[in-house]
């Protein structure tokens, strides 16, 4: 399966995937280097993921996108902005541009992941594991462990399965890099679900996604 992994980070969602040919897109070169170290068999490209999707979506069978979440996050609105730590900003609507592009133009399977936002979603997603997921296939509910955002780096490394101890002097704190990882078990579950054949009528009745 030819997979496009957008906004790849260090590859939390990709960690447990097998039998895939992955092209990973990550804008930050330091993070892209860490991804490449963990997944040397993958093709890693340091460019803007949003534009790469538009230019290359027809080349893949499965696409995963995890666009930046801070402008959608409840934390920014209810905590940081309320305390005067952050100014108001526009929510980045590239998130919905990608959902609509994939929904109407892409013929393969796809999944877009983001945080549960401070507003009602403009396109209805699945919700589990404390995040929103849009897709064009049914994703069975799955219980996930806490993302443990407040844990220390060593605990997050154990939880996510990435040892970052050799990376010294990087400009982005390790805790943030690990917090941004999608749970590996969840990434595997969603890829496996994309391979299942679900009858359209059952898919519609379950109402788990707005992909169709």
* SSE ordering: EEHEHEHHEEEHHHH
The CATH topology label is Rossmann fold
Structural category: alpha/beta
Helix share bin: 25-40%
- Please, what is the average pLDDT? 87
Q: How many domains make up the 3D coordinates?
A: 1
> At CATH's second level, what is the architecture?
3-Layer(aba) Sandwich
Summary tags:
disordered C terminus; 8 helices; Rossmann fold; 7-stranded mixed beta sheet; 7 strands; single chain
Description:
It is built from 8 helices and 7 strands, in the order E-E-H-E-H-E-H-H-E-E-E-H-H-H-H. Helix content is 33%, strand content 15%. Strands 3-2-1-4-5-7-6 form a 7-stranded mixed β-sheet, with helices on both faces. The protein has one domain (2-144, 183-206): Rossmann fold, CATH 3.40.50. The radius of gyration is 17 Å and the shape is globular.
